[in-house]
Amino acid sequence: MTAGELSLLLLAGVGAGLTGATAGLASLVSYPALLAAGLPPLAANMTNTVAMLGTTAGAAAGARPELKGQGRRLLPLCLITTAGGGCGSLVLLLTPPGAFTKVVPWLIGGASLVLMAGPRLRRMAERAEHHGIGPVTGVAAFLVGVYGGYFGAAAGVLMLALLTTVWSQPLARTNAAKNIATGTANLIAAVVFCFTGDVAWPAALALCAGSVAGSWLGSVIVRYLPATPLRIAIGIGGLVLAVVLGRAAFAG
Questions:
Q1: 117-126 LR contacts (CB < 8 Å, sep 24+)
Q2: Cβ-count burial of 229 within 10 angstroms (0-12 exposed, 13-18 middle, 19+ buried)?
Q3: How far apart are CA 176 and CA 252, in angstroms?
Q4: Which end of the chain is more exposed for a tag (fewer CB within 10 A), N or C?
């Protein structure tokens, strides 16, 4: 991999971190960048999973005020998503490539619609799961973790849609929690992928370095953005990604 390609991946990492911390769509930038650099899809997916650990680190550093006081309910959530991420990584290694490609666009599209309708759905869910992590939320979080470990594109949108419907708090705080929850799923999957030999380490390190800076900046920006327009913009971005992935999945 040339110095020019690594420089472009570094810039792509900044964009991915910024997009991931604010909208949960980091892989919308990073995954195509890896494909453009010449990596085959499976290796690009694994490399991207490792590289996006930088997004979690940067987002956590930038959102410390929003994360304050959330440890009690984040701990069980992260344990659930970690288990899901481990399962998802094993599914990727043990199933034929592309097994979920026709399902993923529907998941992302549905999550984007749920996110845009979040406040109304939250009012419906408050009585059932107003405190902590209830059984329905736990199962849904596990499935998001599985998806995050398997592929991960827009896993943040899925998690943000889920948490928005069950937690009544400012969007910036929910977004910060989302970054940590999806990050733990990503972490365990990355550990698994590190032992496969399919991670392109120069590309992963370049993306990771850029994503740390981008995600730190994104977490700070979210603090000052109005919640409703941001939520709608993320939902629209998720719908666009669903259409793009859907066209790629069903074209063949």
A1: 118/161, 118/164, 118/165, 118/231, 119/164, 121/164, 121/165, 122/164, 122/165, 122/166, 122/167, 122/168, 124/165, 125/165, 125/166, 126/166, 126/168
A2: exposed
A3: 38
A4: C
**Cα 237–Cα 192–Cα 26 angle in degrees, nearest 5:** 15
CA 11 distance to own-chain centroid:
19
Residue 91 near residue 214 (C-beta atoms within 8 A): no
Query: What value does the mean pLDDT of the chain take?
Result: 85
- Alpha helices (H) in the chain, listed in sequence order: 3-23, 27-36, 41-51, 53-62, 64-67, 71-94, 104-116, 118-125, 135-150, 155-166, 171-194, 201-222, 227-251
Q: Write out pLDDT tens, residues 200-217.
A: 999 999 999 999 999 999
Query: Per-residue pLDDT for 131 more than 70?
Result: no
Q: pLDDT confidence of 129, banded at 50, 70, 90?
A: very low
- Contact status, residue 190 vs residue 50, Cβ threshold 8 Å: yes
Sequence-distant (≥ 6) Cβ neighbours of residue 41 within 8 angstroms:
35, 97
| Exposed / middle / buried, residue 144 (Cβ in 10 Å: 0-12, 13-18, 19+) | buried
Q: Which pLDDT does position 120 carry in this prediction? A: 64
Q: Is the pLDDT of residue 22 over 50?
A: yes
Nearest to 52 by CA among 171, 147, 185, 143: 185
Distance CA 152, CA 147 (A): 6
Q: How many CB atoms lie within 10 A of CB 97?
A: 11
The CA distance from 210 to 149, in Å, is 21
Query: Is the whole model's pTM more than 0.90, yes or no?
Result: no
